[in-house]
Design goal:
single chain; mainly alpha; two-stranded antiparallel sheet; 4% strand; elongated
């Protein structure tokens, strides 16, 4: 039933938020990156939406905007490390 999918994905998104996103930003983990954990997180988020489960709502607005194709704005970022990283990504 749809309720089972909703509960499953709600729990899964909580785990993803706590383990891979801090303050709405992806954690700085080369281990998770190399293991493909972020790709798996993205697939789980997409499947949640497709199966009628909850949408992920824990990403910061700039991360969510980047994921849907909007350019990063490094000059607006107050954190020097994140500003440098976003300049490299651009």
């Amino acid at each position: 039933s749809i309720f089972i999918y909703f509960v499953f994905f709600a729990e899964l998104l909580i785990i993803i938020k706590e383990r891979y996103f801090r303050d709405g930003k992806p954690v700085n983990s080369t281990v998770a990156l190399n293991a493909g954990d972020f790709k798996t997180c993205g697939k789980a988020m997409g499947m949640s939406i497709l199966q009628g489960g909850p949408a992920p709502n824990f990403m910061s607005p700039d991360v969510a905007s980047f994921l849907v194709g909007e350019p990063l704005s490094p000059s607006e970022n107050q954190d020097p490390l994140l500003r440098t990283t976003s300049e490299r990504v651009n």
